[in-house]
From TrEMBL:
It comes from the Bacteria. It comes from Luteolibacter rhizosphaerae. The lineage of its organism: Bacteria, Pseudomonadati, Verrucomicrobiota, Verrucomicrobiia, Verrucomicrobiales. This is HAD family phosphatase. It holds the Pfam family Hydrolase.
């Protein structure tokens, strides 16, 4: 697994590049955390989701996280209802989103040279709105979301589907990821990974 110092690499030796979205391409994790807090509070579970736990669970589908929260705290939250509330809260924060410059510039440098895809644990509606908000909807040939596979990250399904849609063998794909679940998923798919470290993905640009 490579690190952020390799972000300017030419991607030679790879036939396609696959990007996670939240926390990798887009500065959106703080907004997602705020949305989680609002949704859980709305459903009577405010204050239970700590920020470090949230980041550790990054990349996983919302409903899966609700199930884990239920197990951890002995709650009976409805995954569908909480996921809906969290989605609506996040969509109200689209104006807060920013590209992560290093990753976005890397993607732009590959435009027209190598096929690229988004492979994310987010839902299609939210990811499409996110990409539109930061102006990169036209940069990727394929977008694969949690809606497109039966099992989300850390299973490899999302990355394997992205590779299949791009028509590229998994071992010829380079992945950029920030979350442990996503890194594991890419590795299980047999892909090479550049890991985006926390200082890059967690801090808004104006706060650096």
């Amino acid at each position: 697994m490579a690190n952020i110092g390799d972000i300017e690499m030419s991607a030679e030796g790879f036939d396609a590049v696959i990007f996670d979205c939240d926390g990798t391409l887009v500065h959106s994790m703080p907004s997602h955390f705020e949305a989680w807090c609002e949704a859980l509070s709305l459903h009577g579970a405010g204050g239970i989701f700590k920020e470090d736990v949230f980041y550790a669970m990054g990349g996983r589908p919302t409903k899966d996280i609700v199930v884990e929260i239920n197990d951890e705290y002995g709650l009976k939250l409805d995954p569908e209802k909480v996921a809906f509330s969290k989605r609506e809260a996040f969509l109200r924060k689209l104006d807060q989103l920013e590209l992560i410059d290093e990753v976005a510039e890397f993607a732009e440098s590959l435009r027209g040279k190598k096929p690229m895809a988004i492979a994310t644990g987010g839902t299609r509606l939210v990811i499409e709105k996110t990409l539109q908000a930061v102006g990169v909807s036209d940069l990727f040939e394929e977008v694969v979301t949690a809606d497109d596979v039966k099992i989300g990250k850390p299973a490899p399904d999302i990355f394997l589907k992205a590779a299949k849609l791009l028509g590229v063998a998994p071992e010829k794909c380079l992945v950029l990821e920030d979350a442990p679940a996503g890194v594991m998923a890419a590795q299980l798919a047999g892909m090479s990974v550049i890991s985006i470290p926390a200082p890059i993905r967690m801090v808004r640009k104006q706060e650096v």
